[in-house]
Design goal:
The chain contains 11 helices and 6 strands. It has 311 residues and is an alpha+beta fold.
């Protein structure tokens, strides 16, 4: 299936420095925002108590917050969860020696002072130590993923491709995390899973482009490396547009109808698909080109040796 009726002739590599600048702004901005604003970590990472209530009518968040403060919960977050009737109450980790059920009972009593008919739908308790372990394991998973990506691309293609692929794979999650720091959306385990999925998605796009680049380098012997890159990217552009477009439509539906629980997950995927699509073209391919990729780099070892032995 082809999206374009004929192969496009867009000079992608001539525009790569502009996209380098755009990427630099996005990455640097993200790296500044994360320590400056911080991430709104979910209870999985911070530990604590989460209680979800369904009010009889639109919830008065300010009155609920005041009632919880009066009950002794100074550090509490109260927000709507999905509809105006659904309220999420988040508390810090339960102190040692205090039973979680006692905390939930006190929170429910405070909520009932605002709306006597409010229904407790869900309670979740996670210790601070568990949250710390999840952060460490999540970062470890991310590091191992990036390492295996570089190793895979290096072995399958060439080390210059490997560097480009890893930079693109780093670029995408950094921008996604920056968006979460900017918007204050909850960063939980589902978002971390989405980031790992984004890395895999971006790598898939990158490998498709690199496969075509390798084929064209061997068939277009008189073309320059930049021309080969442009031809290869244009030839795979229909596939890229169709894959990214259909995936994006699915994720947009998830964002619109999946509710608050899947809001962070779908947002991370939306940002990752958009950023990952252009990074596989301009970052991965562009960096490989700027590292001096030539036709000889992609020849089999025997062919390289034969060329080197020529007088």
């Amino acid at each position: 299936m082809e999206f374009f009726k004929k192969v496009t002739q867009i000079p992608f590599m001539a525009q790569r420095k502009l996209w380098y600048a755009i990427s630099a702004v996005l990455v640097v901005g993200s790296l500044v925002l994360v320590p400056l604003k911080g991430l709104n970590f979910g209870i999985e990472f911070t530990g604590g108590v989460v209680a979800e209530y369904a009010y009889q009518g639109p919830a008065n968040l300010e009155l609920t917050r005041e009632a919880l403060h009066a009950a002794g919960f100074a550090d509490v977050a109260v927000q709507n969860f999905g509809t105006a009737r659904d309220v999420l109450v988040r508390l810090p980790p339960v102190p040692a020696g205090v039973k979680p059920d006692t905390v939930t009972t006190r929170v429910t009593a405070a909520v009932h002072s605002v709306d006597a008919g409010a229904e407790l739908r869900r309670t979740e308790v996670i210790g601070a130590q568990v949250g710390k372990e999840l952060v460490e394991k999540g970062l470890t998973a991310l590091g191992i993923t990036l390492l295996l990506i570089m190793l895979y691309v290096w072995l399958r293609f060439e080390w210059k491709f490997g560097v480009g692929a890893v930079l693109a794979a780093l670029h995408d999650p950094i921008v996604v995390v920056g968006v979460f720091a900017l918007t204050g959306l909850t960063f939980d385990l589902s978002v971390l899973a989405a980031i790992l999925a984004v890395i895999g998605y971006s790598l898939n796009d990158t490998v498709v482009v690199f496969d075509r680049v390798r084929e064209r380098f061997l068939s277009l012997r008189k073309a320059t490396p930049s021309q080969v890159m442009d031809i290869s990217i244009n030839e795979t552009l229909s596939r890229t547009v169709i894959t990214s477009g259909t995936t994006l439509l699915t994720v947009l539906a998830l964002f619109a109808f999946g509710g608050e629980t899947l809001r962070g997950f779908s947002t991370a995927l939306i940002v990752g698909i958009v950023v990952g699509t252009y990074s596989s073209i301009f970052v991965a391919a562009g960096v490989s080109l700027d590292l001096g990729l030539t036709q000889q780099d992609l020849l089999p070892s025997e062919s390289k040796k034969a060329i080197d032995d020529l007088p």
